[in-house]
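Researcher: I'd like a structural prediction for the single chain below. Treat it as a standalone chain; there are no partners to consider.
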Amino acid sequence: MDLEVVLPDESPDIAPEAFAELARTAERLGYRTLFLPDHLLPPEPYGATYGGVYEPLVTLAHIAARTSTIRLGTSVLVLPLRNPFVVAKQVATLDRLSGGRAVLGVGVGWDRVEFAAVGADFATRGARTDEDIALLRHLFRDGGAFHGRFHHVERGVFAPTPARPVPIMVGGTSPAALRRAAALADEWQGVGLDARGFARCAARLRELSARTPRSAPGWPGKAGGTRWSAPWTRRARSPMRAPTPWPSGSAGPTVPRSGWRSSPRRCVDEVLRG
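Model: Treating it as a single chain, here is the predicted structure.
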């Protein structure tokens, strides 16, 4: 079973050096992926509801220079709030600078007020996200002409191109998010779920996708489909702690943000039974 962690990014008081310190500790403990959250202009102060004080892609580039093996991802970037051409440039650059460790986690967003604040269309966010994912993959393959509902490109040179396909992860548990993950994503991330809920979503992904779901070592499935994950997060509440103390007084990761309240082995067993 691979472990993944969402680093804390909910307070303007977080010391900048804490990110690299936490990332190096996660890497030393054997975590496969670390993630950072995203909100551009939330209507209320950053905290339990809104994460993303430090811009995630810029911060991940900083972390990349201080780590060597752990994957670097977003959980999740609110894609329809952003210009997809800029996102593609940022992610491709991060992937090159990190030696191929970038993971682009995306979601459609949920806060209508935040969309209005940045001038983004809330009503079409799902359709825009679908097309943006297609555009990102197109640009990562060298670019060229692209014609969609929202974006039209006749010519243009995109660089740097990733040396390998950047994994695109879709987050969310709604029916639309599961359909999007099955159809368009390399990975899926579930939040706000217990083990049984995670198992139900995994079963639904099997139904929706003609591909064989791919899972971490110790989980069922083969390469070639959608990978599933539920990251661990410092914000969850549980008596479970990391194997060693985390730096700077941090409590460290506890349980997945999905809210599981048991041991990792028991959670795996519940998912497999589901």
